[in-house]
């Protein structure tokens, strides 16, 4: 068991050498579950209908609904796994303080895990990130430190620098570091990727994912390439991010408004050799696509889902009838009630295509 949880699977190594291939997903058979954390994962796969049809796609497009995790995002999976691996390794003990640099969803997941398990939690977050996520983190009892977005990633004032400084200053603290933590991709290898293969009975022709830390893309791709070797992996990347290859695709200096994916550095948790093709999407197309997913497919999703769906509509255009494209839907609309779901926010940035406020009335005016 020590070996299984030792997190020593080197990034870039052959998946068959992973000690976590033997990791066993807990099965809860009770009708009443012991706590909310046991509901993380096992999210549904749902067919998308109107949007793929409008794009003239022949293949089936299936969404993996990660906003149905209890904290509202795919990052609940890694929050639980990183904390429990740290507990098993003895580097997080009762009374410990969890510190992390996050674009919000890992913060929500960690704050929820910490609330249930009784840890103190301090999350370091860029100031471009919506107040909706920050309020959720604070409601779980965690503290939030907001830092400037527009500083270089290795600056002392950025999320990395500030979280490292807090870790040095606070005794009994653990810096989770999802950008380098092997438990991040391993959570997706063992759960998200396996669930996609199982849910599709092994018939997967394409998977479209975004890259923030790259944990999802690395873990899911390794599992898919092992079990469905002919499937194509698509990386969906915001225009101003530097993650895509060839790097000539990346528009250096263009700010990225979409939250959670697209950075100006390459995290260790991202193994880019697993991505077969990168597709770039700008903020306007991404956020309008997210609004279409909400309105036309009924998915209460966030902005990064729009990046992935827009990329999927391009990448899957050449798939044939009977083939299947899986798109991840990483997080919830609840994170964006003060930004892209708001018409004036969209208007101020020149993004608006189809206003929603026309549906809002006052009975007395
Ligand atoms: N979408 C959203 C909204 C996110 O918060 C994240 C995580 N930062 C992702 C996608 C990408 O996940 P990953 O970190 O596994 O690349």
From TrEMBL:
Keywords: Amino-acid biosynthesis, CBS domain, Cysteine biosynthesis, Lyase, Pyridoxal phosphate. Its EC number is 4.2.1.22. One of its GO terms (molecular function) is pyridoxal phosphate binding. One of its GO terms (biological process) is cysteine biosynthetic process via cystathionine. Its cofactor is pyridoxal 5'-phosphate. Pathway: Amino-acid biosynthesis; L-cysteine biosynthesis; L-cysteine from L-homocysteine and L-serine: step 1/2. One of its GO terms (cellular component) is cytoplasm. It catalyses: L-homocysteine + L-serine = L,L-cystathionine + H2O. Hydro-lyase catalyzing the first step of the transsulfuration pathway, where the hydroxyl group of L-serine is displaced by L-homocysteine in a beta-replacement reaction to form L-cystathionine, the precursor of L-cysteine. This catabolic route allows the elimination of L-methionine and the toxic metabolite L-homocysteine. Also involved in the production of hydrogen sulfide, a gasotransmitter with signaling and cytoprotective effects on neurons. Belongs to the cysteine synthase/cystathionine beta-synthase family. This is Cystathionine beta-synthase. The gene is LOC113209693. The chain holds residues 46 to 410 of 540 of the full protein.
């Amino acid at each position: 068991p020590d070996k299984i949880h030792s997190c020593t699977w080197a990034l870039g190594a052959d998946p068959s050498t992973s000690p976590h291939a033997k990791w066993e997903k807990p099965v809860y058979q009770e009708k009443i579950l012991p706590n909310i954390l046991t509901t993380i994962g096992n999210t549904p796969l749902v067919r998308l209908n109107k949007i793929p049809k409008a794009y003239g796609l022949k293949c089936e497009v299936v969404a993996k609904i990660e906003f149905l995790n209890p904290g509202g995002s795919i990052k609940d999976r890694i929050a639980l796994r990183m904390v429990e691996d740290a507990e098993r390794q003895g580097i997080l003990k009762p009374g410990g303080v969890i510190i992390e640099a996050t674009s919000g969803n890992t913060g929500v997941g960690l704050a929820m895990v910490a609330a249930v398990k009784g840890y103190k939690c301090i999350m370091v977050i860029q100031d471009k990130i919506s107040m909706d996520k920050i309020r959720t983190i604070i409601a779980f009892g965690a503290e939030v430190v907001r830092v400037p977005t527009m500083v270089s990633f290795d600056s002392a004032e950025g999320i990395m620098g500030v979280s490292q400084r807090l870790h040095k200053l606070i005794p009994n603290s653990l810096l989770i570091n999802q950008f380098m933590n092997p438990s991040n991709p391993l959570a997706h290898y063992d759960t998200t990727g396996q669930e996609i293969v199982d849910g599709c009975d092994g018939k997967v022709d394409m998977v479209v994912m975004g890259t923030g830390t790259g944990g999802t893309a690395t873990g899911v791709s390794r599992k898919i390439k092992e079990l469905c070797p002919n499937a194509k992996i698509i990386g969906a990347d915001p225009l101003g991010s530097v993650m895509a290859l060839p790097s000539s695709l990346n528009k250096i200096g263009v700010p990225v408004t979409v939250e959670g994916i697209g950075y100006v550095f390459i995290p260790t948790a991202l193994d880019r050799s697993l991505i077969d093709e990168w597709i770039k999407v700008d903020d306007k197309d991404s956020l309008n696509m997210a609004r279409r997913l909400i309105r036309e497919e009924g998915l209460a999703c966030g902005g990064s889902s729009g990046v992935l769906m827009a990329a999927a509509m391009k990448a899957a255009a050449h798939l044939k009838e009977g083939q299947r494209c899986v798109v991840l839907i990483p997080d919830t609309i609840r994170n964006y009630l003060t930004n892209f779901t708001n018409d004036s926010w969209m208007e101020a940035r020149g993004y608006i295509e189809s206003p929603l406020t026309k549906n809002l009335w006052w009975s007395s005016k």
